[in-house]
Design brief:
Layout lengths: L1 H8 L5 E4 L14 E4 L24 H9 L1
Parallel strand pairs: 1-2
Amino acid sequence: GMIVSALKAEGHHVAASDIGDYENRWIGGDVERQWHCDFFEIRQLHPRFEAIVMNPPYSEAARHIAHGLT
């Protein structure tokens, strides 16, 4: 929530996802698109996306970064 809200407040277009299936996670239409997915199952990013911003558990940070760079 807070990362999404901060990016939207700065005028960025935001698509958000979470491995948890939280109904109405981003209340108030803060995101243009939201979905439930596992980051490690994503093999290719849609060309529209310019960046990946995430907040993984510290113990998993290196694994998340490595996957994001592949």
